[in-house]
User: Fold this.
Amino acid sequence: MISVVIPTSAMERREEFFTRCLESLWNQSFQDFEIVVTDNSDDEVIKNICDYYKTNIVYYKNPVKGMAQNTNEAIRRSKGKLIKILYMDDYIAHDYALEKIVKKFAGQWLVTGC
Assistant:
């Protein structure tokens, strides 16, 4: 299993970016993944989007501010053998991206871009 960790914050246009990010995951050919969202915004916007989609999303409200701390918390809460960090304003453009990441990983470090 791969963990896709998505640290989120109160950035402008977050609903649009975060929704596009999540939707890019639903189309993946490789489906053995969890989505771990850590949210350090002060409102419920990200939580409401997660509640709407529900599938494969593990949501955590993170009161600790800062992108590095929020990313580290998402990694700590992940359960996958592999971890793909996907920031909320990013998305996976290719439907086979997770499959390719898993195939290329050989138990060593693997740095990817999507």
